[in-house]
Amino acid sequence: MSDDSLTQARERVEEVYRSESRQVLATLIRLLGDFDAAEEALHEAFVAATEQWPRDGVPVNPRAWLVSTGRFKAIDGMRRRARYDASLGSSPSRSKRRRAIRWSRRISTSRMIDYG
Which pTM value belongs to this model? Predict the structure, then answer.
């Protein structure tokens, strides 16, 4: 990949961040039910965009790509934390269990929406 196309892809990521990040964050908050998890997922999605878009090109619908990527990053994080807690042999607190159940229900029952 040439330096020019790499620069163009990074500029596009910055442009999408400025124009779409608020809508992506709001959608992730609704899907995940937790502001902190949504914010973390948003930033992880933009990190992934910074790595992938220069190599693979900018998707047709960047907002939908970011929401989907953020959602999957959040699910992966929940699974990773659950495995870590299980490996320590510790049982998560009651509030953590309720939050995990609430997240899994919201994520599994979320309808896919056209984010365009």
Answer: 0.72
